[in-house]
Amino acid sequence: MAKDMTLYWGSGSPPCWRVMIALHEKGQEKSYNSNLISFEKKEHKGPEVMKINPRGQLPAFQHGKIIINESIGACEYLEERFKDKGTKLVPEDCAEKAMMIQRMHEGNSLMMKFADFAFYNWKVPEPERHDSALKRNQEALTAEIQLWEDYMKKSNGQYLAGKSFTLADVVNFPVFAMIFRMGLCEEKYPTLAKYYNNLKERPSIKSTWPPTWDGPGQAVLSAV
Ligand SMILES: N[C@@H](CCC(=O)N[C@@H](CS)C(=O)NCC(=O)O)C(=O)O
Description:
The chain is an alpha+beta fold. The protein is built from 8 helices and 4 strands, in the order βαβαββαααααα. Helix content is 50%, strand content 7%. The radius of gyration is 18 Å and the shape is globular. The termini are far apart. Glutathione (GSH) is lined by residues 10, 13, 15, 44, 56-59, 69-71.
């Protein structure tokens, strides 16, 4: 049967990975055309992707005539569209649902602080760099990660929001996986490390693990 879902994705991109995890959790792993795109070759700026996502960004996701490219939106769409299939990713209970929504969107803050820190050396030309800015970015990221460590202590390192695996985990696990890969110290953040090590064995996560992540990443976060 022809597949009516298509995902263009890039290896190691947390926004792409979260959509893949959602597809797998909702039992749709065999129901979509999976197109791995090379960032290095700038394929994300090619006509196929631009037709779906005019920003030339990944993920680019289409289901029939519906296009939904924003990764968190695509995850929410999949949960809604395949409500009765696979894992239920949104809790019934109102308070648990509120916590899930809160944690899901709070992940943006983690992503932004990670980007400010990690991209500073890569994007700012050397003569324009200041130690004070580097220090400020590092302190902001450390405080942010400590906040998540404290959240996780309350849930004993199991899931980000409540007693079960939810959209909060779908959206944020790829970000934690990326920061541990980039050298975040497991001993310093033991509860987050427990969360990361438990979930990396989950079938939806294991089977969608970024293919370019076979070796260790650049250890830029060891000081955080
Ligand atoms: N808001 C988007 C962000 C997507 C995004 O930033 N994708 C990056 C890869 S992680 C990308 O395609 N970057 C290439 C570019 O912006 O040209 C989402 O979450 O879906």
